[in-house]
Design a protein that fits this description.
The chain is built from nine helices and no strands. It is mainly α. The chain is flat and about 55 Å long. About 30% of the residues are buried.
């Protein structure tokens, strides 16, 4: 939709440009939010970036943020007061544990503490492949806290290489976007890449105690079927766009030579 509005030059209008973009984003975020706050937040941030890159008017973007925040606050209020089986209590506990780590029992913040131990004892080179101690203690060591285990086994060097992998992915996506001549291909590439990158850095942020526990996996690394399927599909679509861009470039060169 955003690419269509670019082509028709209607992206800056409220009725024909902004409203058709707002509705699918609201529906998507609303469906994800009750079950998974962190994923909904990532989708929201990626949508916000795409709207900004797509030259949507700042006033419309501000309106979009206000609508999303109003929906989120309303849901949290209703869920915490009138819904018995909601995720709000879990979100509240995780945030409270994160901001009051010195005032709560160690068992209440067990996962984050064990992840910090794994990272703190790693050193520059790590303990070696398969020699992690905390993987036998940490719950979900191969999904939510896989980064801590990687650092423990491969050290600071392994952490830098892993983060570098995601930065290279982002760099390559930017190159594809620059070469692309179509709006849809550009927005698809940058949107899917940002979803992967943001999910990765949220997972890393949780492991190094920058964020509360979210349950986000490390794309292409963590054990988990749904995450792996999405990441693989996203990479496949990005590669398809890259192939199409290179093919168009080759065809244009062939026409010039003939």
């Amino acid at each position: 939709l955003l690419s269509q509005k670019q082509e028709n030059d209607k992206v800056k209008t409220l009725k024909e440009g902004f409203k058709p973009l707002l509705i699918p984003i609201l529906i998507t975020v609303a469906l994800i939010f009750p079950a998974n706050f962190s994923t909904a937040a990532i989708v929201f941030l990626v949508s916000l970036i795409l709207l900004f890159v797509g030259q949507v008017r700042f006033l419309h973007i501000f309106l979009f943020v206000i609508i999303i925040l109003t929906f989120g606050i309303t849901f949290i209020f209703v869920a915490s007061n009138y819904m018995q089986h909601s995720r709000v209590a879990t979100w509240k506990n995780r945030i409270e544990h994160f901001f009051n780590q010195d005032q709560i029992e160690e068992s209440a913040n067990f996962q984050a503490n064990q992840a910090k131990i794994a990272i703190a004892t790693a050193g520059i080179m790590g303990k070696g492949p398969g020699n992690s101690v905390q993987k036998n203690i940490l719950p979900h060591p191969y999904s939510d806290f896989i980064f801590a285990i990687i650092v423990e086994e491969y050290g600071l060097i392994g952490a830098i290489l892993l983060i570098g992998f995601y930065l290279i992915l982002l760099y390559r996506a930017i190159i594809i976007v620059k070469k692309s001549t179509g709006y849809f291909a550009s927005f698809l590439t940058i949107g899917l890449t940002l979803l992967i990158i943001m999910q990765a850095f949220v997972n890393i942020g949780v492991a190094i105690n920058l964020f509360p526990v979210t349950g986000q996996t490390l794309p292409l690394i963590s054990m988990g079927g749904t995450s792996l399927i999405f990441s693989s599909a996203a990479i496949g679509m990005i590669l398809s766009v890259s192939k199409s861009v290179n093919q168009d470039k080759y065809d244009n060169k062939s026409k010039v030579n003939t």
